[in-house]
Amino acid sequence: MTEAEYTTVLFDVTDHVATVTLNRPEVMNAFNQEMLTDFQHIWHRCRVDDDIHAIVLRAAGERAFCTGVDRKDGRFRHDNPFSADDPGIFLGAKQNRVWKPLICAVQGMCAGGAMYWLNEADVIICSEDATFFDPHTTYGMVSALEPIGLMRRIPIGEAMRWALFGLDERITAARAQAIGLVSEVVPTDGLWDRAAVLAGRLAAKPPLAVQGTVKAMWDSMSMSPGAGREVPLHYTQLGNPGSQIDLGAATRPTWEAR
């Protein structure tokens, strides 16, 4: 599969940044089986292509970043429940061993299964009109994997409330920043430009240093405190010798307060 064969997304690599744009605005960028297949290939490409240093995930249209699974198109489900795959196997960057930093730029509605992307992102920014909600319980469905992943990012009480109240409540952009779901809220018309600026800063850094940092931090989440102190040491031993360490030659940019 090549970029030209993707049916649900737009894909571009420029200046070491891969930009992935969800491109089903007519259905609020809901994912179907075709999108799952596209992302399976995209994450493999991002993982093995060393020309890619950072990734931006964004969405076409004004109404929504993504509203979860396409309830009309659906997706393939194996008849044997023990052989069935969860959508996260396809959509999650970290489940696909992508350690290049992922920036998600969210506008409009971000609902339910869209959290498969956000839960495994490294940086999340959103527009002022962004809202986050989980419709599962309203429709009589158990919400499990999405809020469990979300608990890595926000307090359990916030994740529980997000999952339980269904369509009764939405988290606003301001609230999302207050609880740590997003790190920055920007005007809607500046969202894509801001994501590109942040990705460019990451892509300009020595890639092994960045990828090793990402992997060490994510791996430590499943470790005991003791292992979290010892195991990440291996990443510095592996990554630093192969990276570009020259304190005198490093470019010092004009820093930005946030």
Lay out the secondary structure.
Layout: E1 9-14, E2 17-22, H1 33-48, E3 54-59, E4 64-66, H2 88-91, E5 102-106, E6 109-111, H3 115-118, E7 123-127, E8 131-133, H4 145-150, H5 156-164, E9 171-172, H6 173-178, E10 184-186, H7 191-203, H8 207-220, H9 225-230, H10 233-242
Parallel strand pairs: 2-3, 3-5, 4-6, 5-7, 6-8, 7-10
Antiparallel strand pairs: 1-2, 8-9
Helix pairs in contact: 8-10
What summary fits the major beta sheet?
6 strands, mixed
Assign the CATH superfamily of the largest domain.
2-enoyl-CoA Hydratase, Chain A, domain 1
- Total strands: the figure is 10
Alpha plus pi helix count: 10
The CATH top-level class label of the largest domain: Alpha Beta
Hey, roughly how much beta strand do the residues contain? 15-25%
Tell me the number of structural domains.
2
**H/E topology pattern:** EEHEEHEEHEEHHEHEHHHH
Mean pLDDT: 91
Spatially, the strands of the biggest sheet line up as 1-2-3-5-7-10
Please give the alpha-carbon distance between the first and last residues: 40 Å
| Unreliable sequence segments | none
Shape, principal axes of CA atoms: globular
| Rg result | 18 Å
Pick out its properties.
about 260 residues, alpha/beta, 2-enoyl-CoA Hydratase, Chain A, domain 1, six-stranded mixed sheet, four-stranded mixed sheet, 10 strands, globular
Tell me what the structure shows:
The strands form two sheets. Strands 1-2-3-5-7-10 form a six-stranded mixed beta sheet, with helices on both faces. It has a four-stranded mixed beta sheet with strand order 4-6-8-9. The relative contact order is 0.12. It has ten helices and ten strands. It is α/β, with parallel strands linked by helices. The chain folds into two domains: 3-202, 2-enoyl-CoA Hydratase, Chain A, domain 1 (Alpha-Beta Complex), CATH 3.90.226.10; 206-242. The chain is globular and about 60 Å long. Helix content is 34%, strand content 16%.
